[in-house]
Amino acid sequence: MGDLTPQRARTVEAVRESGTRGRVQQFVSEHGPITATAIAERLGVTTTAVRRHLDALTAAGLIEEHASAPATRGRGRPARAFVLTSAGHQALDSSYDDVATSALRYLSEQVGEHAVEAFAHQHVASFEDRYRSLVEAAGETPEARSRVLAEVLTRDGYAASSRPLTLADGSTTLGVQLCQGHCPVQQVASAFPQFCEAEQQAFSRLLGVHVQRLATLAHGEHVCTTFVPVSALSAPPDTHTDDLIHPHPTDPDERSER
């Protein structure tokens, strides 16, 4: 084959750039708040290239800089971390969301809200049945079960992660923070909170402890956050949700950009 013509070369480059930009958006969804440096390390590209894609995604309204309380990060300016916007999440969602929402609204009007609630529990029961054997095989501890639950949720498109939540001095583990960076039914759940409630109850049954939902994508947060106590007597600390997103300041995503 001969050399590419300038026009074809530009087309190939545009396709390649588009693919990388999509991967950057996906990483922000799965790991946000995340910095350009952290994305570059995971994708194996330059930080300059990642920043170019982040600027483009920001201009398109798909991501935004994460506003968090100032923290001590050592020398150098604080790293800029990014999360998906509502538009960014919708861009990853199924095009059938509008149809599903309309159908459930019709069901609510014609039959009643109890019918929507019953449907939400039936929907959640489908993944609960599939997850149960895998989660139970992880052992009896909520920590181990949460890790496996995050893994299977990610396979189903929820971009989930599990992290221990400890006191500032690291002496005591209060519980586990289960995060979902993406929700395939976000638009439906925004209109019908019964889906979030049914999911929380399913998590409690799978993990064997009463979990507490701290934030949801459906209510405008950048991530769904669920507190999983290490025992039935544990309770989440009295702190703002944003302070729980990265419980360990030494997380690689939190490093300052030089």
Topology:
Elements: H1 6-31, E1 34-35, H2 36-43, H3 47-59, E2 63-65, E3 81-84, H4 86-92, H5 97-110, H6 113-137, H7 142-155, E4 160-166, E5 173-180, H8 186-191, H9 194-207, E6 212-215, E7 224-229
Antiparallel strand pairs: 1-3, 2-3, 4-5, 5-7, 6-7
Helix pairs in contact: 1-3, 2-3, 5-6, 6-7, 6-9
InterPro entries: ArsR-like_HTH (IPR011991), Carb_Metab_HTH_regulators (IPR050313), WH-like_DNA-bd_sf (IPR036388), WH_DNA-bd_sf (IPR036390)
Organism: Arsenicicoccus bolidensis
Protein name: HTH domain-containing protein
Defining key terms:
single chain, alpha+beta, Arc Repressor Mutant, subunit A, H-NOX domain, 2 domains, four-stranded antiparallel β-sheet, three-stranded antiparallel β-sheet, disordered C terminus
Structural overview:
- Helix 1 crosses helix 3.
- It is globular, with a radius of gyration of 20 Å.
- The longest helix has 26 residues, at 6-31.
- It is built from 9 helices and 7 strands; from the N terminus they run H-E-H-H-E-E-H-H-H-H-E-E-H-H-E-E.
- Mean pLDDT is 78; it is low at 11-16, 69-73 and 233-258.
- It has 258 residues and is α+β, with helices and mostly antiparallel strands.
- Helices cover 49% and strands 13% of the residues.
- It has helices at 6-31, 36-43, 47-59, 86-92, 97-110, 113-137, 142-155, 186-191, 194-207, and strands at residues 34-35, 63-65, 81-84, 160-166, 173-180, 212-215, 224-229.
- Strands 4-5-7-6 form a 4-stranded antiparallel beta sheet. A 3-stranded antiparallel beta sheet has the order 1-3-2.
- It has 2 domains: 6-92, Arc Repressor Mutant, subunit A (Orthogonal Bundle), CATH 1.10.10; 97-250, H-NOX domain (Alpha-Beta Complex), CATH 3.90.1520.
- The termini are far apart.
